[in-house]
Write a structure and sequence with these properties.
Blueprint: E1 2-5, E2 21-25, H1 27-42, E3 59-63, E4 71-73, E5 100-107, E6 114-116, H2 118-128, E7 137-141, E8 158-160, H3 162-170, E9 175-178, H4 187-197, H5 205-208, E10 216-219, E11 231-236, E12 247-249, E13 253-256
Parallel strand pairs: 5-7, 6-8, 7-9, 9-10
Antiparallel strand pairs: 1-13, 2-3, 4-10, 4-12, 5-11, 11-13
């Protein structure tokens, strides 16, 4: 089996608009930490110098949002008052079989900053000769990964408009992924379009579609250009099981039998 990594790295040295901190604990610091914790919680005594080389184990402490790095958005992320249920499901409540399914990738790299519509999706499906099936995982290759770690990653990419999102959901798809920061268009594009049109339908329509229909998004994917074919692979993107959370990180991969 061939495995292709479809994930981007969580890296505290990259530019992010929200706080991301990573504190690494050395093996020597780990010895002090462990012996102090044993003393406090278990009443056990051990001098750190009694350990081989005075070292125990390393550790890492991170502070970040569940929406940093490659992650899966749960239905509860989209709002608290969905029309299809009394309580939208959190990331730890979703069926696992949604996240190991046949996948297909659509090339939207020529669309540019803004939104792709139904016509873009239909044209690309016709080009690759694929008919999506219910529960397939749809991946959108926009080329945004090239700008990761820069402010442009958050302002220059292709999202979906509302009809395009519903077009995919009408096919029975439950998981839509993108290599961009968001499945919706960039914030500056959305606000500019709203100010020009006064149409509230342009305000984050892909996310707000989740208030009427239960589905998940994978955002901040990577490596979509490495897929040798636009279909004929499976996607594994199980989200981290975080209680009461609206999203969870995933190490998304494509699985190929050849």
């Amino acid at each position: 089996m061939r495995v292709i990594d479809l994930s981007t790295t969580i890296d505290a040295e990259r530019w992010e608009p929200d706080e991301l901190s990573h504190k690494a604990m050395s093996a020597k610091e780990g010895a002090v930490h462990m012996t102090a914790a044993m003393r406090e919680h278990l009443g056990l005594e051990l001098d750190p110098d009694e350990l081989p080389d005075g070292e125990f184990l390393t550790n890492d402490f991170l502070s970040l949002s569940t929406h940093m790095g490659t992650h899966v958005d749960a239905p509860s992320h989209y709002g608290s008052r969905p029309t299809y249920t009394d309580r939208p499901r959190d990331i730890d409540q979703l069926p696992l079989d949604w996240f190991l399914r046949p996948g297909f990738v659509l090339d939207l790299t020529d669309v540019g900053t803004g939104t792709a519509g139904v016509a873009h999706l239909e044209k690309e499906l016709q080009r690759i000769g694929y008919r999506p099936r219910p529960f397939d995982i749809c991946l959108l290759h926009t080329g945004a990964e090239a700008r990761i770690g820069t402010p442009g990653y958050f302002t220059d990419f292709t999202g979906l408009d509302g009809p395009a999102t519903h077009f995919l959901l009408d096919l029975g798809i439950k998981v839509i992924g993108t290599d961009a920061f968001s499945l919706d268009a960039p914030f500056p594009y959305i606000i500019k379009t709203y100010r020009e049109t006064g149409d509230r339908g342009v305000l984050w329509p892909s996310h707000f579609a989740g208030r009427d229909r239960e589905y998940c998004q994978i955002e901040r994917l990577g490596g979509l250009g490495a897929l040798p074919e636009p279909f004929g692979f499976r996607v594994a993107c199980f989200p981290t099981k975080i209680a009461r959370a609206g999203a969870g990180w995933t190490r998304a991969v494509a699985l190929l039998d050849r």
